[in-house]
Amino acid sequence: MGKKYDVTDHVRVPEHKVLSSEEKEELLERFNVKEQQLPKIYHNDPVVKELDASVGDVLKIERNSPTAGKAVYYRLIVERK
Amino acid sequence: MPHKINKIEFKILSPQQIKEMAVGEITDPTLYDKSGYPAENGVMDPRMGVIDPGMKCRTCGKSIGSCPGHFGYIDLSRPVVHVRYVKTVYKFLRATCQECHKPLGDDEEIEEMEDPLYELYLKKRKKCPHCDAEQDKVKRKRPHNFTLGGRQLNPREIREWFENISDETIKKFGINGGRPEWLILTLLPVPPVTMRPSITLQSSQRSEDDLTHKLVDLIRINQRLADNIEIGAPDFIIDDLWELLQYHVSTFFDNNLSSVPQARHRSGRALKTLAQRLKSKQGRFRGNLAGKRVDFSSRTVISPDPDISINDVGVPEQIAKEITIPEKVREDNLKELKSLVKNGPENHPGANYLKRPDGGKKKITEDNCEKISEELEVGFIVERHLQNGDVALFNRQPSLHRMSLMAHRVRIMPGKTFRLNLCVCDPYNADFDGDEMNLHVPQTAEARAEAEELMLVQENIRSPRFGGPIIGCTQDHISGLYLLTGDDVEFDRKTAQEIVTQAGDEDVVFESETVTGKEVFSKFIPDLTVVFDSESGDEKVIIENGELKQGRIDEAAVGSFAGKLTEKIERKHGTEVTKDFLDSISRLSLEYLNRRGFSMSISDLDITEESKDEITNMINDAEEDSHRLIQNFEEGDIDQIPGQTKKESLESHINRRLGQVQNSANDVVGNDLPQKSSAVNMAKSGARGGMVQLSQIAGVVGQQTLEGNRIHRGYKDRTLSLFERGELSPKAHGFVSSSFKSGLSPEEFYFLVMNGREGLMDTSLRTRKSGYMERRLVNALQDLKVETDGTVRDNRKTIIQFTPGEDGVDPAKSKEGDVPIEIE
Fold this sequence. Notes:
The complex is a heterodimer. By secondary structure, chain A is α+β, with helices and mostly antiparallel strands. Chain A is built from two helices and four strands; from the N terminus they run βαβαββ. Chain A has one domain: Eukaryotic RPB6 RNA polymerase subunit. In chain A, a hairpin with a 3-residue loop joins strand 3 and strand 4. Chain B is an alpha+beta fold. Chain B folds into five domains: 106 residues, no CATH class; 164 residues, Barwin-like endoglucanases (Beta Barrel); 121 residues, Enzyme I, Chain A, domain 2 (Orthogonal Bundle), CATH 1.10.274.100; 155 residues, Topoisomerase I, Chain A, domain 4; 42 residues, no CATH class. The chains are: A alpha+beta, B alpha+beta.
């Protein structure tokens, strides 16, 4: 089959970045929330697999937005099932 | 804080649990004894709760309202299958061995499976891997019977089978809700009387609840079955009664089972049993839990009133006297409220109730109103009638967007209908062919303030759907303004003054002897400069410093959904000014139209003989061309379009050729119609109808379609029997070459109606589909709100969006979705 396809290279996949634990703490502080109150993403999501991130990490996603230019979103990696 | 739910368990009641929670066995099918007292051990046994006022519950000692009711049980003479678990029973029968009752699969295999019970059920193993026993075919016979190798399995045998399934096996299946044999009922819980109360009719005759009727039937059959078993009746009699018992237990749970006849009342009405109480729109969930009825609301027919503001709603006096607002008595309103109380409940600005600070509530009547008004003191609360200026919420179903519920200022009016300004018809999607609307009156100061600030009509002029005005002029308003702002409209000073005064602006003074229509309209434009295209596209509209310099005001300027001028005014001067603008220009327009007169006649659509001939020639040419195309096609010569068959290509060619006719007919009619006629004025200003409609009336109606194609339905190889078989000509497939004015031939009319019917079907199908989509969306999104920190969260306070809509733009404050920044 040859080379494995890297989803993060796809134009439709926005930039994902794993937050460091300090950054994560700061994020939780900023929005005054517990970890579980963040939007979630499954650990077996293709992007998460690609980034080699683990459950409990938070991803910072920078999406292109037609109205806002860049829209920042955060998602917590959770175990599926 | 999200409450993390650790576990929810749904289990099956075991016979033991049924017995434990019950107050006793119910054996007697009689409801009441001769003295009218509920029979002991009967379905209405007093131990199961109280429903008569003044009685004490025999079990808990509480009285009506506080006694929750208590279960009883029926000991079924023979076990029956629970209808809701027939499928599960089936799965167990097919997934376990009929000899050793172990799963029909080895341990490693089961380990791999996500749902072993279901997957083994699908496998239909012929041989048990544990004891090598041959497996007979288990078949399900709807609704609740099973056969094993052709032989009927009765519930008792199934129960025995299930009893022999080991706990270990059940664990392997991943089931921990109880034992499989509990799916076969031996005891039936009898719901407490409190959930099936009897109603006493006027004739002091009692009418029992459907569930009670069902239970009585059930006990009777159960008793008969027991008696027959006792006397050792032949098997077929017992089997028949057993089947009957099964039927009664099944319909007790759900009386809408497929392939089971419905249990009926003596009158022939189907009984409402347990499942029917919960299911569908009128069921417990959607009818009682998700939907509630409210006080301080009213509903009546609506009718138009162009003289009231868009913020107003006309309320009939009758309704105003019924709906009240609680008002606290203060020093400064004591006198006023005293006079209201004195008026009593029957005379309009009156009052209905008086509340004392100690909590006492007194009804004001015609007899005591004088006396009560003397007693009135500071601190009392008077529930006074609805009055001019009060805030009320006005709503029309279906409430498809937030503008379907807006706040209006009340205006008490004679008559029995709600009155509303024509400009707000669009957000409500209302007309006056018998539409009814609802009015709700907020009862607290907070609610009133919120309604006024956020929901008032003027605050909703800009729609969050597209960031433009959804409230604006419609129909005759547009015609009137279009005519008024025409180039040759002129008034003498007196007339102009009258018109302006009528439109509501009494301060305007005209200096010159003659006043043009544009000058009159300009008096109502706030100070601003704007240039935009008109609806017809002839001439740009130019407004300089609140002065209409060029162009005519039409749909594009002030119409709802479009309104470029309205939009600009709202953005520059705010909602209050826009409201005044809309109020006055709509009055102005109608005043001018009334003075001028406006009507339409058939001669508005007269075209010259030459034009008629031109159109006829065009049609003939197109038909000839079509025939040539058809002839070529039959000879096999066709310009085939990629991706289409030859036949499809022919259809496309013909359609295109006939479409050309319509376009050119539009032009011919458009150029030839008398330009000053009312019909043309309406089409050009966008008030009603367009060039297409005019050319259908005067020129040619054109091709009728079904699902986007020419009409092919009908008889074998032809649409109607007056055509040749296989005829492909335009006429034979729905091309209407007549105009509405010249009249249609019978076959043309038939095609037109086919097309029209398709349109009707489409609309009704679409509304149903979109209604359901809306319902699901609303259910999913109803708890989301923007918190004070600017995040969008749900009711558990989990974040859904970090910035509302990614950009933080409120579309209702935007200009078509953008944030307009203007540098002057």
